[in-house]
């Protein structure tokens, strides 16, 4: 695997990791849906994983952090936990991809560096999969409530920008992790060393690459 592709994979993974963090902190997972009788645009409700905000038509915004974690819906609690785990896994992937990078001197053994790079790619893939779970779960709940006739119009929500950011970040981490995993060493040839075999008389030597 070339250095350029390895750098590309690491860069995509880092961008995806940053996107996961941004989506986790933004209060834009659910936004007010203006349908039916709920057409008053004087204020807009934003709901995130950690806080909810009310945006007035004048541009003023008031945000409030959720008081009780136990009072939150199960999908919100699970999304918090999963995205925190995804961020930690992504951080491990970043360290591993740097340690296994061909342009770094963290490890002297080329075979070990390749293994560490592959491990970093696997961590990026795992973090990407974890990022897809809460965003897809929340989107499924929002869409289900939106088309549910038993849910009042004032309680219906639309997909917020944070969900799309989370989706995009997860895809970037999956692509970056896949590129890093493609550098998986194949047998003894990936060690990049030369093996010398000497004959019994010490005069003739065979060289294996």
TrEMBL record:
One of its GO terms (molecular function) is structural molecule activity. The keyword Cell membrane applies. It holds the Pfam family PMP22_Claudin. The chain crosses the membrane at residues 7-29, 81-104, 116-139, 159-181. Keywords: Cell junction, Cell membrane, Membrane, Tight junction, Transmembrane, Transmembrane helix. One of its GO terms (cellular component) is plasma membrane. Belongs to the claudin family. Claudins function as major constituents of the tight junction complexes that regulate the permeability of epithelia. This is Claudin. It comes from Labeo rohita.
């Amino acid at each position: 695997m070339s250095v350029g592709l390895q750098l590309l994979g690491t860069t995509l993974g880092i961008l995806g990791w940053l996107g996961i963090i941004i989506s986790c902190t933004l209060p834009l997972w659910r936004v007010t849906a203006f349908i039916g009788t709920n057409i008053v645009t004087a204020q807009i409700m934003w709901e995130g994983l950690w806080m909810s905000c009310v945006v007035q038509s004048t541009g003023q915004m008031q945000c409030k952090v959720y008081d009780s974690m136990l009072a939150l819906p199960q999908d919100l609690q699970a999304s918090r936990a999963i995205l925190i785990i995804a961020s930690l896994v992504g951080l491990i992937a970043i360290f591993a991809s740097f340690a296994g990078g061909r342009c770094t001197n963290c490890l002297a053994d080329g075979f070990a560096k390749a293994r560490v790079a592959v491990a970093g790619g696997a961590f990026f893939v795992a973090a990407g999969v974890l990022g897809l779970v809460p965003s897809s779960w929340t989107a499924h709940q929002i869409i289900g409530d939106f088309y549910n006739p038993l849910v009042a119009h004032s309680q219906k929500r639309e997909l917020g920008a944070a969900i799309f950011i989370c989706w995009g970040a997860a895809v970037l981490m999956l692509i970056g992790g896949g590129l890093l995993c493609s550098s998986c060493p194949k047998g003894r040839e990936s060690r990049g060393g030369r093996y010398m075999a000497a004959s019994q008389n010490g005069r003739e030597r065979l060289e294996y690459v």
